[in-house]
Amino acid sequence: MIEKELTFLVVLDDSKEIFNALRYAARRTARTNGRVAILYTFETLEFSHWKAVEDIAEIELRDKAESKIKEYENYIMNFTEKKPKKFIMKGDRVECIIEFLSANKFISNFVLASSLNKSGGDPLINAFTIKQSSKIKVPITIIPPTLTEEEIDNLS
Fold first, then answer.
1. What are the φ and ψ backbone dihedral angles of 148, each rounded to 5 degrees?
2. What mean pLDDT is predicted for residues 12-26?
């Protein structure tokens, strides 16, 4: 029997907690001979009267996305020998994630990192544990913000 490669999805953002999710996913995949998938999303810009401006802004956002992906890819490579699968999507973040998970059945686990921010909670965690939970078909791992790197390594 051929074992399925475990693939852990991390949705990128600019938070410091993202490194907890990336560390967990990378360490976990190194131990299971799996792979990390990283998804960067950006909002659709609406410049209906100035299509050229919209096109330029989208190019700049894609360039930023590719730069961020490279930064996070380098971090992941500190823990595993396999390069992550990289994806960029344009649109509402939650809708992009739902669409991505529906279209990519190879994802085994969705890894999120919570923050210490008390005001309103984490939008993605709220979305996928409450509002949109019925729309995804993979387990979610939530990394608490209070874990040390050593504790994350021990869990993964």
1. -80, 165
2. 93
